[in-house]
Design a protein that fits this description.
By secondary structure, the chain is of the alpha+beta class. The protein has 15 helices and 16 strands. It has three domains: about 290 residues, no CATH class; about 110 residues, no CATH class; about 55 residues, Arc Repressor Mutant, subunit A (Orthogonal Bundle), CATH 1.10.10. Helix 5 runs antiparallel to helix 6, helix 12 packs across helix 15 and helix 14 packs across helix 15. The termini are far apart. Heterotrimer of A, B and C subunits.
């Protein structure tokens, strides 16, 4: 009988924190920027420069620790991790080994099982530590050389290290989604995988079902989308099983995933002997988080998704499906709440978000976090439809422009002359012309064919260039017929 294998997965997730400045200096953390323009003697590792810790980094790290049920290390310090690599200007990285800021946490994940039922399970978090990011190597194939950009060097990171509690790609994605949402709700990071502000390294091993001992693990890097992570897990699982089936050994190493080729290849062997010669950083004083400071961070924790979902159900009376989608993005939830606060009906706001917004996001391959239109403008658009100033098809047209350029809908409707014609005399004149021009449809209607009126409504709307209220047109046609 064929052997059954189980996959065992643990993750190291790096998250760039949303501070305005770097962890140990005043340089900007903005993404983009010309190479080596967001730099200074501290983050380029010049001799004699001294680091000064950014307080906001500690507050974000503690907030994430509290949200993931960790114990906060109230007396913690920084260590130097020594390694020599061109993107690491000091030849060491300031990190935390001995006293990481958060320990022993866990998050609950929800996963759809193979039987179609959803199950929940906890994923334990071993620790979360603060550290600085390295620079970025840019390989120039044309000149056959490698250039270094130090803009990212010194950008604050937290590294969230899980226990090996996940058993499938589905569980890994559920865990990452959960972390991403918690961190976005906290405002601690935008967690954009494509920009590298959230990165996951996957530690994976396989073992026979029922075995006590873990197999030899490999670590996979270079994963910048959930799809790539899922493919890499599947690919690496199959590679390790093939080796074991052939009686060969899995080598403990770091592998790089190539998403185009859907294959991973070895980067370097990762023996436990790799010695980073950690020692406490002599330039930084230990961090002491007092009870008062801890409480003040705890008191600022936001309403997370689970509580939001419950409140939406009680307060807004919108369908659960809508609630699920809207709370799945902090930005979407903010737009929804702000629009309702401005006086729009919750169901109408949710309809615009669920239908038109989702359609345009999909069409333009955008994330909800990239939405640019303001709640004020959405509210005004809804008010224009409610007040019959424009009809629903014109509203969709205006929304499309609003989605792209965040225009003020009132101004736009005024400038483009899109208001519904509410002049009864003008409408009656057009309806009479349409009736005169379509004797066949009039006859069909009199013979009991209800559908015929739909055609006449369409012809009237066309003649009015869409600027009539379909309900009024329908009513007038019935009167005149």
């Amino acid at each position: 009988m064929a052997k059954q294998y189980e996959t065992v997965i643990g993750l190291e997730v790096h998250v760039e924190l949303a501070t305005k400045t770097k962890i140990f200096c005043g340089c900007s953390t903005a993404f983009g920027g010309r190479p080596n323009t967001h730099t200074c003697p501290v983050c380029t590792g010049m001799p004699g420069s001294l680091p000064v810790l950014n307080k906001q980094v500690v507050e974000y790290a503690v907030a994430v620790g509290l949200a993931t049920n960790c114990t906060i290390t109230q007396y913690c310090k920084f260590d130097r991790k020594n390694y020599f690599y061109p993107d690491n200007p000091q030849n060491y990285q300031i990190s935390q080994l001995y006293l990481p800021i958060c320990r022993n946490g866990s998050v609950e994940i929800e996963v759809a099982g193979e039987d179609g039922n959803t199950y929940t399970k906890p994923v334990r978090i071993h620790e979360i530590h603060m550290e600085e990011d390295a620079g970025k190597l840019v390989h120039d194939d044309w000149e056959d050389c490698t250039l270094v950009d130090y803009n990212r060097s010194g950008v604050p990171l937290i590294e969230i290290v899980s226990e090996p509690d996940m058993r499938s790609a589905e569980e890994v994605i559920a865990y990452l989604e959960k972390l991403r949402l918690l961190i976005q709700y906290l405002g601690a990071s935008d967690c954009k995988l494509q920009e590298g502000s959230m990165r996951a390294d996957v530690n994976l091993s396989v073992r026979e079902v029922g075995a006590e001992k873990f197999g030899t693990r490999t670590e996979m890097k270079n994963l910048n989308s959930f799809k790539a992570i899922a493919r890499a897990i599947q690919g690496e699982r199959e590679r390790q099983i093939d080796l074991l089936e052939a009686g060969k050994e899995v080598i403990q190493e770091t592998r790089r995933w190539d998403d185009n080729k859907e294959y991973s290849y070895a980067m370097r062997s990762k023996e436990d002997a790799q010695d980073y010669r950690y020692f406490p950083d002599p330039d930084l004083v230990p961090v002491y988080i007092s009870d008062e400071w801890l409480e003040s961070i705890r008191s600022k924790q936001p309403e997370f998704r689970t509580e939001k979902m419950k409140r939406y159900k009680e307060e807004y009376d919108i369908p659960e499906y809508d609630i699920d989608i809207i709370t799945g993005s902090k930005h979407l939830a903010d737009i929804f709440e702000a629009s309702v606060a401005l006086g729009s009906q919750p169901k109408k706001v949710s309809n615009w978000l669920m239908v038109e917004t989702m359609r345009l996001l999909k069409e333009k391959e955008m994330e909800p976090e990239d939405i640019r239109f303001s709640p004020e403008h959405l509210s005004r658009l809804i008010a224009l439809v409610d007040g019959k100033v424009i009809n629903s098809s014109v509203a969709k047209e205006v929304f499309q422009v609003m989605f792209e350029e965040d225009v003020d809908p009132e101004q736009y409707v005024e400038e483009k002359g899109l208001k519904t014609v509410n002049d009864e005399g003008a409408l009656r004149k057009v309806v009479e012309e349409v009736i005169a021009a379509n004797p066949q449809s009039v006859e069909d209607y009199h013979n009991g064919k209800e559908k015929a009126i739909g055609f006449l409504v369409g012809q009237t709307m066309k003649a009015m260039k869409g600027k009539a209220d379909p309900a009024s047109v329908n009513q007038m046609l019935k009167e005149l017929l």
